[in-house]
Each structure stands twice: as structure tokens, then as C-alpha cells.
Amino acid sequence: MAGVTVGSMSERITTDGDGTAPAPVDWDARAADFDDEPDHGLRDPLVRAAWAERLRRWLPGRPADVLDLGCGTGSLSLLAAEQGHRVTGVDLSEAMIERARAKLAGRDAVFLPGDAARPPVAGRRFDVVLVRHVLWALPDPADALRHWRSLLRPSGRLVLVEGVWGTVTPVGIPTDRLLTLLTPLTGHTRVEHLSEDARLWGKEVGDERYAVVAMA
Question: In this protein, which residues make up the domain named Methyltransferase type (predicted)?
Fold first, then answer.
């Protein structure tokens, strides 16, 4: 296998099949075709509806302030905004941010270039920190989680979509490890296994994909 592309949104990296160091990805260059992946662009009505259904479960039932880290082109941000939430998106790629701004033009949403591990939100607090396929790729997941926890208001929640990808040299963060990292930071946690829902990915998948909703 020449290589396997894992994760999603703009924190995603490409790893070589022989276990060598991750190859850098030019995310500004990838912005033009990023939404071609079914679970990135959510262009298929069935895929889009599946993610919208999950977000309704994970996000508060009332309008809330949502921080979408590693937001990419803003597909999840758009679903959250359509459900009445106020969204702040952060991504390293300026090109991704520009596409997100265009996608959510006229919505209650702001997009900022920056590091997902230390988002440039100037001390603001949020009801939800939403992160999809980003945590596993950060150099210090425990530190990132501690910082994200500090960005939550009382009774806020972390919504973390993660997984383990690949068969030759699998990469990712298993469910049990993420739950261990969350134990000192949050109260109630809920896990939803996502691998069996092919609608989310536009195809059948056999690897570990899941979401954790952790209440502050």
C-alpha cells in the first residue's frame, strides 16, 4: 500500500504505508477538491441528513455558541447554523476558511485562521466545542483537551468525533484512550459508535469510528 489518507477536515494528514513519518499536506491546495469526499462536502442528501441527525443529538436543543475546531470548509458548521446555533470556526488553512465563509455567507458564523489546539478566540467561552478527526493528529491530545475544556461555559460539552484508520499501520485514537483522557476533565460522557452507519461516510466502513459527547 503506497499510503493511506486518514481523518478529515484540515487537520488531516497522510501517513505512508511503511510506517515512515507523516507526509506534509498542502491544505490550501486541497481546498478546491476537499468537499468531493462524501463526509466532507455532505453533498449527497443522505449523507447530509445523517450528519444533521447526529448533530441534533449532540448539540443543545436551544440556540448555543458552538466552536468548530479544524472546521475545514465549514460543512458541519453549516449544519449547526441551520439548526439555530451561533458558530465560530477555526482552521489552519486560509483557503479552507475562505470556502467556509462563502458557504455560510449570511449565517450567524465567524471563521478564524488558527491552530485547533490553541484557537484564537481571545478568552471567549462556548456552550459546545465540536472537533471532528483532529485530536488524534495533535502532538499532545491531553493538553488540547484540557485547553478545550477551559473554553466551555458551565454545563458546556465537548463533542469529539474520532476513530482509528488503516489496517497495515493503523493511526488514530481508540475509544478507551480518549475516555481515559477525558476522565479527569468532564462528568458524564456518552459514546456513539459510527462505523455501522454507512450513511455518514457514503460507503460501508470497517474501521473504528465513534463520537464522544462529554459534559463539563
Answer: 67-160
